[in-house]
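WARN no homologs supplied; continuing
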Amino acid sequence: MSWSLSSLEHIRMEFVLIAREPFISISETCRQFGISRKTGYKWLKRYEAEGLSGLSDRSRRPHTMPLETSADVVVALVRLRQAHPYWGPKKLKVLLPKEGIRVDQLPSVATIGRILNRSGLSKSKGRGRPKFYKPIREVVDADAPNDVWSIDFKGWWRCGDGKRCEPLTIRDLFSRYLFCLRPMKTRKTEAVKEVFEEVFLRYGLPKVIRSDNGGPFASMTGPHGLTRLSAWWRSLGIELDRIEPGHPEQNGAHERMHGDMAREIQSNPSATVLEEEKRLEYWRIEYNVRRPHEALDMKTPGECYRMSRQRMENVAPHVYPGNYEQRRVRRDGYIKLAGKSVFISEALGRRRVGLEQLGGDTWKVHFCNLELGVIDFDLATALRPTASVTPPNQ
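OK structure emitted
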């Protein structure tokens, strides 16, 4: 039997299936197929190691060719770039070994960039941010997973059915792990809190949550910028960190992720919000387990993230000093003190505050470890902020 090129792989498969039968002589089978025993054992070995794909012809080109990139690498690069049109040379180089490219075949990042340019799959970018750029505000740093979580709403867009899609995004600053990418029907506290409860139960609690000054995360008028949502976070022992109004670059890593999402998802919306939700969840999974990040030494967020040991179900209520009076704030934001109704904040409705008597009719009001202000009945029957109260944007 001759080795016909038109059915070469089929003949090899037939040979392997016959030769693997019990009590079959491999030597006799090789004679029947007109091949040497060495060739026969080679195909058996490849089949056992790689399955049917091992029976295909392999390139006879040298393993190394100085100053030349193999066609296999170029094809793999083009395929990866088409699948991920916004991923740059550094990310694509990390993925090449997963496409079957050997380490000694990997081109440099600069070579990958040239290949993409020549293939018409890349465009030159501008000069970027000036080197003298410095952030306006020094932000809280993250040295480990769950030190800081950043949160925000991605700007909304309309799907094909005309309905709005506005995802809530929650991400770990250190590992870049994306916990939540969910389109929200509303920004109301109840809906957003429900999502955070789910995330906290699954991943644990962070030490700090960073947000902008928009609702429902913060209030520009309440003490310490507290809202019902951020007051709940504080009751769980989570510190609050807010960027300055009008300075999204202070949460730059999060905004960069939103930019990627805008190019890859928002620019080509799905027909319905339901389809967009499934697409966003797939994007989130790919972002966490497949997409390498330069800030992580080209590892994925899933390789760097570890769940928090601080669990929501184990958080004990805040204990105020024994000399403090305690009051539960009514839903309308008032407490009863010395027979008078005193307004504190609606954000603290149904939560306990500590009252430290400074003398006479003067009281300092605390919520957890935050000093909210002073009540002085000689001046008014309302909470008066003190100089020690932190502005809401810090």
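The chain is about 30% helix and 15% strand.
OK
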